[in-house]
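Page 42, continued from yesterday. The earlier attempt failed because a stray header line got pasted into the input along with the sequence. Redoing it now with the clean sequence only.
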Amino acid sequence: DPHNALMYGAGHGGFEALVILSIGMINNLVYAIMINSGAVATMMASLDAAGQQAFQAGIDALIQTSPFLFLAAPLERFAAVTAQIALSVLVWFAAKEGGPLKWYPVAILLHFLIDALAVILSGLGAPVLAIEAVIWVLAIGYVCLARQVWKKSVQEVV
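This time it went through. Structure tokens are written below.
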């Protein structure tokens, strides 16, 4: 049933979002607790010079990070889950239709496109909001494509 395609995408994307967000947030919370409790100096004392530099760089990055960026992560993951659901629909219809599986390579290329653009734009120093906007535009485009494929396939059955 085509609705399974939606659940595959939601399950995959939801699990990925949970893991990525929770590991990152737990790490940030541990650092924040260490900073607020004064445990940073104790932790740094047990490290060699290279370890101290790396640890201090992590602490400095956390302190200097805008609170907005902590809110951007769930927004980005929501767009990613949306895109993954749409791509799962394309893969499902590729498997259902058999034959050349034309939607399967399309889904792979679209997944590559959204990931590559996010990395490239980030590497170019694009603002987080611009990167998020690109991800959202692509995700919405993927949903529109998946919807068209869905409707066409359902109409062919009827």
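Notes: Residues 72 and 129 are 8 Å apart (CA to CA).
Reminder to self: strip header lines before submitting.
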